[in-house]
Known about the structure:
Layout: E1 5-6, E2 9-11, E3 17-25, H1 27-30, E4 40-41, H2 52-70, E5 80-84, H3 91-97, E6 103-107, H4 113-127, E7 132-139, H5 141-148, E8 164-165, E9 168-175, E10 182-187, H6 202-221, E11 230-234, H7 237-250, E12 259-261, H8 262-265, E13 277-278, H9 280-297, E14 302-310, H10 314-318, E15 325-333, H11 345-366
Parallel strand pairs: 3-4, 5-6, 5-7, 8-13, 11-12, 11-14
Antiparallel strand pairs: 1-2, 2-10, 3-9, 7-9, 10-15, 14-15
Helix pairs in contact: 2-3, 6-7
Amino acid sequence: MLKERKEQTIVFKNKPRIIGNYSIVGPKEGKGPFGKMFDYVMKDDFFGEKTYEKAERKMLEHAIFGATDKAKLNPKDIDMLVCGDLLNQIITSSYAARAYDISYLGIFSACSAMALSIGIGASMVNAGYFQNVACATSSHFSTAERQFRFPLELGNQRPPTSQWTCTASGCTVISSEGRGPYIDSVTFGKVMDFGISDVNNMGAAMAPAAMETMISVFHDTKTTPDDYDLIITGDLGKLGAEILMDLMEQQGYKLRENYCDCGQMMFYYDQNVLMGGSGCGCSASIFNSYVIERLKTGQLKNVLYIATGALLSTTSCQQGESVPGIAHAIVVKSNVVTKSKTITKKEKNKIANKVEKQLSKFKSEEN
Length: 367
């Protein structure tokens, strides 16, 4: 194992496989560019429950069961559940784990939880400790909003730099056996703090951490941005993604058309989300739908997924503390052998064009 580790990166020798994936989102997210790609779109944010917190728990349970079912396994076949969310004491994950009689590892890494859970799960499978590990996370706009910002009833105006916490959940089942895409490596990030104290500007707070982790991936694996079909971050939003591109260029790396941020990808610009989406479930749902499905078919061959998190709490914000950021990365590769080009640009450009049209319309309305 020591020989496989390179600075912050573990390159897996046994290549853990993704054998199950599932995504579930709220109605607003279902109206975005990726709406038809998610496994399930909720009719309303309550999801048949009396409170938003119970709805988020049900949503996460739904994702875990869905991914397990797609892997053609029973919950009892899962050796470990690695799970996290945004709420205090990660109550969504812990309460959801009650429904499954399996070992549970609760984690908190804010919006970077999906990549961290996959990194931990893949490490366990690679080492031979477990055969099947479920990695999941979730977020809900209404639960996060009233915990971190204001009571929903106040209807406070949101500043231009803010992002919309996605009502979404995703689950990935990793196994030592199978024919699905495989996890090639994981890079565990470092906590970075550039002194951003505005709790409504998460993109700026997390961008330095994304830069640090991305450079570590390139350094440890001796790759460049051009070696990947797709590089996705989650969730910097429009502003944070632009900051990241500037920071990377200053370090000698130019991010090109193969780079996208899940916060920008989740919504159309006329959906009133300002800088885009955020939350644990944002990148988790896109990764477990669009990305994995195209890895399965070989449309994507080599994907770098970097999830970012703002490690703040309501207490630290009230005390005037700055917002530390962290980012964890995984490299996922397809096992499909094809003579065609590694990525089909037509499908990606179709979505990008829709977003660009909405952006142009949004800018013209502003002027």
